[in-house]
Design goal:
CATH topology of the largest domain: NADH Oxidase
CATH superfamily of the largest domain: NADH Oxidase
CATH architecture of the largest domain: 3-Layer(aba) Sandwich
Radius of gyration: 19 Å
Largest sheet: 4 strands, antiparallel
Strand order of the largest sheet: 1-2-4-3
Helix content: 40-55%
CATH class of the largest domain: Alpha Beta
Length: 216
């Protein structure tokens, strides 16, 4: 494997990506490409590895229309192939931590007794947060997963548009999130750019390295 070539391709793909405003309504994401995105997001970093959120992948056209109305009629909601809705827990319960520890024990072929130190640390930390602190912390974790989605999609030459411009309460109502102990935090539309989206032909604008970085 030529790592130098792969690195160059990755940087090239990051230059290629942009927040797509006009999607090709006729191009659907294949199941194979969707699976690659789902696995990429599943492997996202998360504090303690807890992943205190769920992700809804909206394909249904009627649901997308409802979400579009709750996002001030931005066309990406219905023109894109899919809508990813990241929703963090409203309240992190002890059962969430227990489920995570059971998953660790099963995956790593160990016992819960061997995880007692980790269990005490997680419960003494996370369960001591107020519900508001838990929601803020959980929402931050969804943004880590969103970043992985954007980066992975660029690598696979799939277009995305991350979006915060939506009515959180209406999204929660449409997707019945409150009854699932969830609240929407951020969304991303996914599909393929339209040739009519002129933004794709513009140079990417970012801070220079000297402006952005301080190396001590």
């Amino acid at each position: 494997m030529n790592l130098e070539v792969k690195t160059e391709n990755y940087i090239e793909n990051l230059y290629w990506r942009y927040a797509t405003k006009k999607f090709d309504k006729e191009r659907e994401l294949s199941e194979e490409d969707l699976e690659k995105l789902l696995e990429s997001v599943r492997l996202s970093a998360s504090s303690y590895g807890l992943q205190p959120y769920e992700i809804f992948v909206i394909k249904d056209s009627e649901t997308k229309k409802k979400l579009k109305e709750a996002a001030w009629n931005q066309p990406q909601l219905t023109d894109s192939s899919l809508v990813f809705v990241f929703a963090n827990f409203r309240k992190i319960e002890e059962s969430h931590i227990d489920d995570y520890l059971n998953n660790i024990a099963e995956t790593r072929k160990t016992t819960r007794e061997n995880l007692e130190g980790m269990e005490d640390m997680l419960k003494n930390t996370i369960l001591s947060f107020s519900e508001e602190e838990q929601r803020i912390w959980g929402a931050k974790q969804t943004y880590l997963a969103l970043g992985n989605l954007l980066s992975a999609a660029a690598e696979f030459r799939i277009d995305t548009c991350p979006m915060e411009g939506f009515d959180n309460n209406k999204f929660d109502e449409i997707l019945d999130l409150k009854n699932k102990n969830l609240t929407s935090s951020v969304i991303a539309t996914v599909g393929y750019r339209s040739e009519e989206d002129n933004v794709q032909y513009l140079e990417k604008v970012r801070k220079s390295k000297s402006e952005l970085y301080t190396i001590l």
